Amino acid sequence: MQNTAQKLSINSLYQDIDANTKSGTLKKPTRTTTQSRFTFIDLFAGIGGFHIALKNIGGECTFACEIDKSARETYKINHTISEDRFAEDITKVDSCHVPDHDLLCAGFPCQPFSQAGFKKGFDDIRGTLFFDIARLIAAKKPKVIFLENVQHLLKHDDGQTFKTIRQVITEHLGYSFYHKVVRASDFGVPQNRPRLFMVGFKEDKKGHFTFPPPVALHMTMSDILGGQCSKTIGYTLRVGGRGSKIDDRRNWDSYLVDGTVRRLSPSEGLIMQGFPAHFKLPSSQTQAMKQLGNSVAVPAIQAVAEQILRYLYDHESE
Questions:
Q1: Which of 98, 113, 94, 31 has the alpha carbon at shortest distance from 64?
Q2: 225 versus 28: which is more confidently predicted?
């Protein structure tokens, strides 16, 4: 159980996160409210990390898709979206039922490409789900696409999987393509979480999009855990290996705090992922930690999304 001091510390950290994520640094050109607003769809949405980040900077989610039942329930509790705009299985989504949108977001299944997965890539049916993303991009032609996956995707099958994805986006769909491994700790939260971010623009005459530079940490694991922690930046939250001993190579949720082993709680995991204080997780700790492990780090997504909009607005104003 957390003591009162720890709860107060967590509340103050949430205030810091809320201030940092909601302030935003995006400077939009002068235009009407309708013209300024952008729309996005949230594929493989999980519990809505993309949704929070893009809503923070003025985006409106017009369609989402998530097949996991428990994650869907968490998404519906925390985000406003009508049932007819919230699909389950992307393979059954008819593009005619997807609204036009400016930005397509997708944290598509990473298990086939991760070190922890079987590394089967496109031989695994989950790997082929990328082609359902491509199908919707071809039909709807959004201005921008923003994809997220594990960094190992770059090296899978000696780089052939990533090469295929890049070719589909550039040669078959006609988008520019930029990529970078981005860490959550580069954008204010104390979690390593290296993830491959891929961005593409339908109209890209400039051809020099750059990812945002890192910012200083807003907090450390000592701040989150309410005592002197042996690690400044925490382990990457994930699904497998939960409950491992602190000296086990699979450990990611146990920390040495003031000389005592402490296990990470869901509320502390929310902070490490940059979610707001009001976000509601399942009462089951197992489900809560699973959903956090499958999510994205909100501040990292938001920083890149802001950069995307700057680039897009600058291009449109030329």
A1: 98
A2: 225
Sign of CA dihedral 187, 168, 156, 120: positive
Rounded to whole angstroms, the Cα distance separating 56 from 306 reads 10
- Give residue for tokens 């977001």: 105
110 in active site: yes
Compute CA 239 distance to the chain's CA centroid, rounded to the nearest angstrom.
15
Query: Quick check: 41 pLDDT over 70?
Result: yes
Cα–chain center distance at 87: 19
Q: pTM (2 decimals)?
A: 0.86
At 220, is the pLDDT very low, low, confident or very high (cuts 50, 70, 90)? very high
Count Cβ atoms below 10 Å from residue 251 Cβ, excluding itself: 16
Which CATH code fits 28-216+298-317? 3.40.50.150
One of 65, 105, 110, 229 is an active-site residue; which one? 110
- Is residue 43 within 8 A of residue 292, CB to CB? The reply is no
Distance, in Å, from the CA atom of 193 to the CA atom of 180, rounded to the nearest integer, reads 13
Residue 252 burial (10 A CB sphere; 0-12, 13-18, 19+): buried
SS3 content of the chain, % helix, strand, coil (to 5): 45, 15, 40
5 exposure class (CB count in 10 Å sphere: 0-12, 13-18, 19+): exposed
pLDDT tens digits, one per residue of 84-97: 999 999 999 999 99
- Fill in the amino acid letter for 241: G
